[in-house]
From TrEMBL:
Keyword field: DNA-binding, Phosphoprotein, Transcription, Transcription regulation
Protein known as: Response regulator transcription factor
Keyword S-adenosyl-L-methionine in annotation: no
SUPFAM superfamilies named among the record's database cross-references: C-terminal effector domain of the bipartite response regulators, CheY-like
Species in which this protein is naturally found: Streptomyces glaucus
Response regulatory domain span: 4-122
Transmembrane recorded as keyword: no
Amino acid sequence: MTIRVLLADDQALLRSAFRVLVDSEPDMEVVGEASDGAEAVRLAGERRADVVLMDIRMPGTDGLAATRMIGADPALAHVRVVILTTFEVDDYVVQSLRAGASGFLGKGSEPEELLNAIRVAAGGEALLSPAATKGLIARFLAQEGPAGDGRDPARAERLASLTGREREVLVQVAGGHSNDEIAERLKVSPLTVKTHVNRAMTKLGARDRAQLVVIAYESGLVRPRVE
């Protein structure tokens, strides 16, 4: 199947460059361009986009607000948002993950990294740049809360619905490990891991693995650690 990509960036030159890159791939196509967040949300539905490459800083409705709007719309539940940012270590990135983004990528990334990010997001199998994202979330959450661990009591209560194995898998997901890596660590099959991940997402109301990582930190299941 062809991955339908929507480009959301207020710089026309960047959109043109991304279009040439994406359209050069046989398994993906650009189905629209937006110069602000509101237009991105509208086109995501109209053009049946699978993945939105979303600039975080745009005039009017910014990428963060647009990501929240997409995440809150049941009709756009299939849409995956990849945040593009000039500064990868950015508080806005964590807020975007919380709002429903599948991950983030620096604008200085190599072309192959961008294309791979689109494929990963469309497949919904893995968190983009897991180690970097995990470190970013840890640094951000370490600054929150009276205990300095960013714990959210409501999130912690929701963990009670998970089985012991699901909690174990969630810890591994928060560590940035893929299904295959988790399977090897826990001595189970990758399919079993995928089942546990899907059940955890359902129970915790997470759209994808990116939000599972955030929940793991917010609930206190995994403690932030600043290197």
